[in-house]
Design goal:
160 residues; alpha+beta; six-stranded mixed beta sheet; 6 strands; 22% strand; globular; binds tetrahydrodeoxyuridine
């Protein structure tokens, strides 16, 4: 028996103002996309923006449904849109921002487990890391250099 330690490195920025300019611009797109969220049930709006290799930016927002499980997270709305429109383009970077109508979200909001699993498929497919930046409404922004930094011990196609 042995214990194995798994380490993940994150970078924490004090605010959006501290981000490198390209990441800041992408986060501004995510914030903009958040306005189009359809979240009448949770009142929690999320925006996601992907930068692709060809310079295209593809955004998405969470879309809810009266039959709750039929809704979808912003990150998956955006990644599937990106892959459907630009199937051969690699993804460089993802920015995520989230806001609640009941409180000011001042802590970074990380993508949910299902989104991490979905996004990991595309990082593995393209064989290049996807930088991920995420924040709440205000305050700190967290960056990981790779999607898989957020999903250690991932399930992937090698098991199939
Ligand atoms: N949500 C996202 O859009 N992304 C996440 O990673 C976490 C959760 C959405 C789903 C739902 O519409 C609302 O936030 C509350 O869970």
């Amino acid at each position: 028996m042995k214990k194995v330690e798994i380490k993940t490195q994150i970078t924490v920025f004090d605010s959006i103002e501290e981000l490198p300019s390209a990441a800041k611009e992408l986060m501004e797109k995510a914030i903009e996309a958040k306005q189009d969220a359809y979240a009448p049930y949770s009142k929690f709006k999320v925006g996601a923006a992907f930068l692709l290799d060809n310079g295209a930016i593809v955004t998405g927002s969470n879309q809810e449904n009266a039959a709750y499980p039929s809704g979808m997270c912003a990150e998956r709305v955006a990644i599937w849109s990106a892959s459907a429109q630009f199937p051969d383009q690699k993804i460089v970077r993802l920015a995520i921002s989230a806001s609640s109508s009941s409180q000011i979200t001042n802590e970074p909001v990380a993508p949910c487990g299902a989104c991490r699993q979905t996004l990991s498929e595309y990082e593995l497919k393209q064989k290049e890391k996807i930088e991920v930046y995420f924040m709440g409404e205000i305050g700190k922004v967290v960056k990981t250099d790779s999607l898989l930094d957020l999903l250690p011990i991932a399930f992937d196609k090698s098991f199939l």
